[in-house]
């Protein structure tokens, strides 16, 4: 019995000692100083009423013992426009947060600004209270008011450059109506949104003030995986493809004209469907079409006239013209150094459509590329696949062009019906295609190799 009491007393004393050790096993200096991966979190260009992308930062315990943060909270508390997630728990405040020795926690933040009622500049602070010490991380967001369209059908109107346009769930221009977009106008589209034209689209950009069509994700995005791979956590969405649907010129549209536009970040930059009259369904000039997950221009049974355009960085095709039609591309740079896997050529031409085992043939009246550069990181960057011996037309021609075509392919570049004055498989010497700078170096073989009779 005495032995049992001795053992029991020993266990009680040991357990009490462990409890006391556990309670004292925290860093207790009154001036705890946490470390932060960022001292200011900036949300740049947040649209009125639309939530931002989520940003994050790390809070690190630099000590060899755990620390307790007595409270983390937003300074403006319930009046704040910011929202927090503190180490996986949603809420704008949290108490008694433990961080193990030399460990970290994550703080996630986002914001919504209504610029009709709120300041365009919104600020707050995240307060970290560790007893006698108080630290903070700044939150800064810049808001912008917009013209907002949500699943809208519109009639004849003019879009001006007084403030941006934001499209959710697509906008459709009704049949026989006119949409005119003035120089300097900026159009943002949310994920899966499209600009559908059943009437006529006229874009009047200028060299100094182009019209810009792009996705609405502007502020930087970040991921906890960035830390694992040591990536920059301030990446932006500038060159991310597939963020919205694109511009769709439906078969009901006609006489569309685009001058000095930048169209980027979509699934398909411009989709053009069947011709409705003898005029080009799309005339596009002095424009840039880039960063699209499927195609820059995708046209079927259409009529396109394009001059002085740059089309680059597309997941499948820069230009795909299928099921025949009539196409003219003059003085265009068509380059595809898509960073992902791609088994297709930058330019693809055909005059048929196959469905359920049946091949339907169409006339390709003309597909002409004059004074163009067609290049990229595939062995062959322009391909024509069609029928010319079954009562349909398959007329295409590359003249005074720099082309990339695999010499081991079955493409006969000596056939002057289709290839005339071609510079073949020669580096065009762009300044930096990976940075999307397609200006030519002084030693480019394309300089002075054009045909002056081809219209500008």
What do these coordinates show?
This protein has 456 residues and is mostly beta strands. The protein folds into two domains: 35-143, Immunoglobulin-like, CATH 2.60.40; 146-440. 6% of the residues lie in helices and 48% in strands. It contains two helices and 40 strands. The chain has a 26-stranded parallel β-sheet that branches. A hairpin with a 4-residue loop joins strand 9 and strand 10 (134-144).
Protein traits:
2 domains, 5-stranded antiparallel β-sheet, 456 residues, mainly beta, single chain, 26-stranded parallel β-sheet, elongated, Immunoglobulin-like, 2 helices
What layout of secondary structure does this protein have?
Layout: H1 2-24, E1 35-36, E2 40-47, E3 55-60, E4 67-74, E5 82-86, E6 89-90, E7 93-99, E8 104-111, E9 121-129, E10 134-144, E11 147-154, E12 157-159, E13 165-173, E14 178-182, E15 186-189, E16 194-197, E17 200-204, E18 211-215, H2 225-228, E19 246-249, E20 256-259, E21 261-264, E22 268-272, E23 282-285, E24 288-292, E25 295-307, E26 310-314, E27 317-330, E28 333-336, E29 347-350, E30 352-355, E31 358-361, E32 364-370, E33 373-376, E34 382-385, E35 394-399, E36 402-403, E37 419-420, E38 423-424, E39 430-432, E40 437-440
